Amino acid sequence: MSNNNFYSSKNISQSSSRKKKAFKNLSMSDSLRLMRIRTLFIILFELILIVTAVVLYFYDYPKGFKQFMKPAYWIIALVAFVCLDFLFLWFSEVKLSSIRQKSDLDAASIIGSDVQEAYNFGEIGLVVIDENGLVMWDNNLFRDRNIDLLDVDLLEWQPKLKELIGPNVPSDMAVKIEVNSHNYSVKYLADARLFIFKDVTDYEQIFSYSKEQATVIGIIMLDNYSDIAGKTEDDNNDLVSKVRGVVFDYCKEYEVLLRRFRSDSYFMVCNFSSLEKMEKDGFSILEKVRSLGKGQNVIPTLSIGIAHDFPNVTKLNEMASSAIDIAMSRGGDQAVVSKYGEDLKFYGGKTAAIENTGRVQFRSVADSIIGLIKNSTGVIVSGHLDMDMDALGACLGVMAICNYCQKPCQIVYDPKLTEKKTRYAFQGAFSKTEFERMTISPKEAEERIRPSTLMVVCDVSVPSLVMGQKALEKSAKTIVIDHHRRGENFIDKPVLSYVDPSASSASEILAEFIHYATANPRIELPQSYATLMLSGMFLDTGFFKSKSTGIRSFEAAEILKEYGADNSLADDYLKDEYEEYALITKIVSTLRTPYTGVVYCVADEKYVVEKSTLAKVANQIMRLKGINACFVIGKVTDKETKISARSDGSINVQILCEKLGGGGHFDMAAATFINTPVASVEGKLLDTLDLYLSEAKSDFGGIKQ
User: Fold this and answer.
1) 567 and 599 both lie in a single domain
2) What is the CATH number of the domain that holds 289?
3) Domain check: are 239 and 138 in the same one?
4) What is the C-alpha separation between 537 and 535, in angstroms, rounded?
5) Are 488 and 420 within 8 A, CB to CB?
6) Is residue 329, in this structure, part of any structural domain at all?
7) Shortest CA distance to 546 belongs to which of 669, 643, 657, 646?
8) Domain presence at residue 121
């Protein structure tokens, strides 16, 4: 390498050193400080002269002074003062111009006239500040744009620049500011007290334009098309036509390209600016379509899945398909917007899930489950953490199907992670030998899982809430059966997923599978299994009083009764002890009403309350007249605080609980907080109600469709 290499590290180091030294030798700041002192001195001197003259005139000292000082002399003195001040200002301006010119020459010598011209061409501004943050020098960029920064406190002028100053600020950090319709990216060199302003207005405009024109792909589905089209031709064909008209008008208004690819489905393409407008509008098309059902036998609803912020349209199509699946599995009547790499956004969801009464679908799913069980070497079944009667009942339903298929099956069970009543009922319903044969600990499940093992998850679809979470992570084949609305965190790539929010309980779903499966001979369900499943239904339906209770719930109960379910024993499993009853009464006494029809209770923070107790308090409050929704707050462990929510169907408590980090069902939901005091949780609940209660209200009063 040549010694004359301009880019050698030695030359660069020397150049950098010369720059820093030159900047440090600039005298602008010192000159300004000196001029301030001179100005102050002159002002004080003039004030002393004026005060002295006035005092002498007033006391006529020496004698005859008052007579001597004629008005003409006062005018002459005043003119003299003004002239002297003007001369001083003129001298100061000349001095400053001289210093500024010298500074410009120094800058030119530092960076070279050619490089300075390159900075001007590249629209790069340089600003040097003193130790007080005052601008002591800048190059021509801002002056050419009629911005005079000299002697300006830069950090007051643009407070955002403070982010660049500090001991722990990365050297490559930059901030963006806007000045007079120009966008700048700013960096700071602390050693030289130098701010570098790069004009990025053109880049920002190009970025903004490309973002606005980015491709957005979506799918629109009419949730209950078969129910509408399957009715009398005149009414419902007219209703379908009205829905299509509303959809096409809405898409035309927001410049969305729409193509129908199925009788109930549409493929949509638009740009991001159109999506922003629809999000700002809150996807009013959902409400417009719902309103068409007033006075009709069936209320039409839409599900919308949209994907954006990824350059590959194939990937966007996959994201849109996943979004529409989530919208449908959450009960429909909502829009799900998927931005690549970020959390899903949900809009709508104001109506309860439409009850699914298609026996063909039950049979098809049940037969698929039987096929997967037969092709496995064994089955492990898991409910959720703090397993309740419904989760246990669903697990026993899966075990009955496995017994029919003659495949070994065990339920993941940890007494510490099971609700008290469920624990007593499970252990009391079977002998010790049977109980040990039927159950497996979470750790054993993790050790025994094999690629050929099938894992079935019941009454939960969030991976972190599964009791056998470690086994789930190792599972190669997983089935998900749940009745809660699907959230963003879903079990990854299950071989079969059946999430039905219109079902009142997971036990109800398993009872239907057992009854409608194409099995010869029929699947046998032991009486003890049926009784525990019925108890699970009692729990989740509030003894068939919940709004989630539909025709299917009573049919499922009938199925379980056919298998010998003992409803008296099922009821006994859920009965409260006196101490729990007294605690429930005490919590109910704390009832508060932040909104008409919306109430909440708070358990004393000194006590740890069972999760099931919070649910019972909520269920009891919902029996009171005029209550549309209730929320019960209490500590369930030393570190956990929980909200249990219920509604009569006129308010979607799942939306509210999702805003709090939880989830659940349309009229039954919950949220859990770690290391958060009860008072803080209460505050978060009230804030959420203030912001989202109107969004969660149903337009049709929670009428079960």
Assistant:
1) no
2) 3.30.70.270
3) no
4) 5
5) no
6) yes
7) 646
8) yes
Taken in order 240, 244, 250, 254, the sign of the CA dihedral is: positive
- Show the DSSP H helices in 233-374 as ranges: 233-253, 272-281, 285-291, 313-329, 359-374
Q: Six-digit token pair at 477?
A: 């084949």
In a domain, 81, yes or no: yes
The answer to whether residues 625 and 562 belong to one domain is: no
Which one, of 559, 582, 557, lies nearest residue 571 by Cα?
557
**Of the candidates 514, 515, 477, which has an alpha carbon nearest to the alpha carbon of residue 497?**
477
Q: Give the number of C-alpha atoms closer than 13 A to the C-alpha of residue 343, restricted to the C-beta side.
A: 7
DSSP, residue by residue, 636-681: SSSSEEEEEEEE-SSB-HHHHHHHTT-EE-SSEEEEEEES--HHHH
Q: How many CB atoms lie within 10 A of CB 580?
A: 17
pLDDT of residue 124: 86
- The reply to whether 540 falls in a domain is yes
Q: Can you give the CATH number for the domain in which 608 is found?
A: 3.10.310.30
Q: Hey, is 507 helix, strand or coil? A: helix
**DSSP code at position 595:** E
| pLDDT for res 30 | 62
Q: What is the CATH classification number for the domain harbouring 478?
A: 3.90.1640.10
Q: Which of 572, 598, 622 is the last residue of a domain?
A: 572
Q: Look up residue 510 and give its two tokens.
A: 């398993």
User: What is residue 380's DSSP assignment?
Assistant: E
Q: What number of other Cβ atoms are within 10 A of residue 79's Cβ?
A: 10
Q: 64-98: per-residue pLDDT in tens?
A: 777 777 777 778 877 887 887 778 777 777 766 66
Q: Are both 419 and 283 inside the same structural domain?
A: no
Residue 327 tokens, joined: 């919208």
Closest CA to 651 of 594, 613, 602, 610: 594
Among 131, 122, 129, 116, residue whose Cα is nearest residue 185: 122
Alpha-carbon distance values, 74 to 79, 292, 460 (Å)? 9, 90, 96
Report the chain's mean pLDDT, rounded to a whole number. 84
Express each pLDDT in 157-214 by its tens digit: 999 998 888 888 887 888 999 888 888 999 998 888 889 999 888 888 888 788 888 9
Q: Which of 572, 594, 616 is the last residue of a domain?
A: 572
Is residue 486 domain-shared with residue 630, that is, in the same domain?
A: no
Domain range for 168 is: 28-190
CA distance 501 to 497: 13
Q: What is the DSSP string of 185-220?
A: EEEEETTTTEEEEEE-HHHHHHHHHHHHT-EEEEEE
Whether 565 and 585 map to the same domain: the answer is no
Quote the CA–CA distance of 274 and 420 in Å, as a whole number.
Answer: 52
For 248-260, letters b (16+ CB in 10 Å) and e give eebbeebebebee
Burial of residue 540 (number of CB atoms within 10 Å: 0-12, 13-18, 19+)? buried
DSSP 8-state secondary structure symbol assigned to residue 223: T
Spatial separation of the C-alpha atoms in residues 341 and 88, rounded to whole Å:
64
Report the predicted TM-score, pTM, of the whole model to 2 decimal places.
0.57
Domain count, the chain: 4
Q: Are residues 170 and 234 in the same domain?
A: no
- Are residues 138 and 43 part of one domain? yes
Place of tokens 């500090």: 166
Q: Are 246 and 266 in contact (CB under 8 A)?
A: no
Name the phi and psi angles at 209, rounded to 5. -65, -45
Which among 368, 314, 316 has a CA at the least distance from the CA of 339?
316
Q: Starting from the edge strand earliest in sequence, which strands make up the sheet with 668-674, in order?
A: 592-595, 598-602, 629-635, 640-647, 668-674, 663-664
Helix (H, G, I), strand (E, B) or coil at 543: coil
CB 200 within 8 A of CB 184: yes
Strand pairing of 453-458 and 378-382?
Answer: parallel
Q: Which residue has the tokens 């130790």?
A: 131
